[in-house]
Amino acid sequence: MDLNWWFFLAIDQVKGELLESYERIDIFSGFPYNLYLVKDSSFTPQEKQLIDFLAKKLVGGQISSEFVKQLDSKEIQQFLRAFESNVVSLIDLNYLNQKFGDLKTIELVKLNLELLLEDLSIVKNKSIVCEEILNKSIGYRELGVFVEDDFLEEIMINGYGKPVFVLHKKYGVCKTNVLVEEKGFLSGLINKIALTVEKKFDEFNPLLDARLPDGSRVNATIQQVSPKGPSLTIRKFSKNSLSLIKLVEFGTLNSELAAFLWVMVEGIGIEPMNLIVTGGTSSGKTVLLNVLATLIPYNNRIITIEDTLELSLGSRENWIQLESRPKIGTTSEVSMNDLLKNSLRMRPDRIIVGEVRSEEAQTLFTAMDTGHRGCMGTLHSNTAREMLLRLKTPPMSVSESMLPLLNLVVVMERFYEPKKGVVRRVKELAEISRMEEQVLLANLFEYDRLKDKILKTDLPSHLIELLSERVSMTKNELKQEIEVRKRLIDWMLAKGISDMGDVEEIFQRYYLDPAGVLEKLSKYR
Ligand SMILES: Nc1ncnc2c1ncn2[C@@H]1O[C@H](COP(=O)(O)OP(=O)(O)OP(=O)(O)O)[C@@H](O)[C@H]1O
Ligand SMILES: [Mg+2]
Question: Fewest Cβ atoms closer than 10 Å to its Cβ: which of 226, 344, 467, 501?
Answer without folding.
Answer: 501
